[in-house]
Amino acid sequence: MKINLVSRAHDFARERLGGISRIFAVDATAGNGHDTAFLAELAGTSGKVVAFDVQSEALEATRARLAKNGLGGNVELFLCGHEKMAETLGSEWHGNVNAVFFNLGYLPKGDHAITTLPETTLRALDAAWEMLAPGGFISLTVYTRHAGGFEESAQIADWLGKMRARAEILTCGEHNPVEPWWAGVVK
User: Fold this and answer.
1) Extents of the domains making up the chain
2) Which residue of 17, 27, 103, 112 has the fewest C-beta atoms within 10 A of its own C-beta?
3) What is the pTM of this model?
4) Among candidate residues 107, 117, 48, the one with its CA nearest the CA of residue 82
């Protein structure tokens, strides 16, 4: 039976974020805005959400999804790579982030030549880890069937292996050349 990894990530987030009164969340790869809208809904009016993407097309799609769902008052969008999250966000975010979502690969229905890259993703993962509050988490959905995707997946698997001593790590699937997989990394 095939598992919907986005649903798995959202269920995991609901479990972890339930009861937190002021949620600070980051969508490191805005894409079409599904995770951004989900996080904005969870954060409500008291929380804050930021989303990053290198494509203006992705941020436009995210903005439209937020507007369609009556969300966005608590969301800020940044046209830059996720590896710049720490330097882009103010000091109120450092050590206070409850959730960071990554969906790695390319923008669905977008230019498939524009993909996440191992070197920037690893820098973003390190930055996300440092920004997390105790009990905060990183949600990683890893797609491998694009140019460089399998290599990115392998490097993420190595990063997770190094994090095992410092984090609680849950997975659904594993690094492979065909099927996407998911990991939750809890601080």
Assistant:
1) 5-186
2) 112
3) 0.96
4) 117
